[in-house]
Amino acid sequence: MSNQTQTPAGGAAAPPARSRWAGGAPPFPGARPAALGTLATVVSLAILVALGEATGHLLMIAPLAATAMIICSTPALPPAQPRGVVLGQLGSGVLGLVAVAVFGHSLWVAAVAAGLSVAVMLLLRAVHAPAAATAVLAVLQDPAPVRFLVLLAVGSVVLVLVGLIASRLGVIGKYPSYWW
């Protein structure tokens, strides 16, 4: 047996086998899309901060920062779609509030609530990873329930609307891929 590469009929050499670890990352989208997606994320979060400052209510929470990034950098993926954003966030927020009401404040309760939020999101067909952190936030901070859910809904809808506007302006890719 020789060390030469076997060539299929037709003479073209087969490409070398790739390691499962090599080349798995998606390609860099390019400088312009990266810069515009970043700008759209910053603008989204600045809008939440401005609305929070104007109303005296905190709208920019960590899970919504992750949501803004997902919408503005990967607008075609299922977690970026309005259903996932709104139902995922609200479902996980409700779960966190119920968990703290039943079991109290603890890191253990927060961990279980985050884990159970996956089931809630799967049942709602609204998987949105940052929403697991929303369940944790609800357990650890024990916010006023109605106020928390209203502000969470407003923040989620604002991010969806900013994504829609950014898409229409050509700043990010087509968004949304589907509404509900």
The CA-CA distance between the termini, in Å, is 59 Å
Characterize the biggest β-sheet: none
What characteristic shape results from the CA principal axes? globular
The amount of helix comes to 55-70%
Total helices: the number is 6
Low-confidence stretches: none
User: What is the N-to-C order of secondary-structure elements (H for helix, E for strand)?
Assistant: HHHHHH
Give the strand content.
under 5%
Radius of gyration: 21 Å
Judged by helices, strands and strand pairing, the structural class is mainly alpha
Q: Please tell me the overall pLDDT.
A: 89
Number of beta-strand segments:
0
General description of the model:
It is a single chain. The chain is mainly alpha-helical. Helix content is 63%, strand content 0%. It has 6 helices and no strands. Helix 2 packs parallel to helix 6, helix 3 runs parallel beside helix 5 and helix 4 crosses helix 5. The longest helix has 25 residues. The radius of gyration is 21 Å and the shape is globular. The model has no long low-confidence stretch (mean pLDDT 89).
Annotation keywords:
180 residues, mainly alpha
